[in-house]
Structure prediction request, 103 residues.
Amino acid sequence: MKYTLLMYWLAAKWIFRITLGDEIRYYGKRYIVADGVRSTSWRLHALDNDDSGWVKRVECRKVLTIKNLCGSFMSGVRFYKTNWLDIWKQSGIQPWMKGCNIW
Prediction:
């Protein structure tokens, strides 16, 4: 139970962060985030630029709608549920995990 609550608490931190599938504003126009494998860039769906739709993350602003906020929360829940919840339940949270970038 405590790890499930931890999962929801950590997922709540995702609400105001930009995640895949979010609607964002980039130079006054709205786009959907399609990819984020570059650490400093987002790839925006339907954006035609010199870099196949990749733009700097700092130039993007999340559109604050209920759908967007709930979508980010659910992305966090799915991430922690499929990647970490079973590990936590079986092994607990080990000291080496405190330095992980999952928090």
The first strand starts at residue 23 and ends at 26. The mean pLDDT is 88. Strands lie at 23-26, 29-35, 41-45, 54-56, 60-62. The chain has two domains: 1-16+65-103, 20-63.
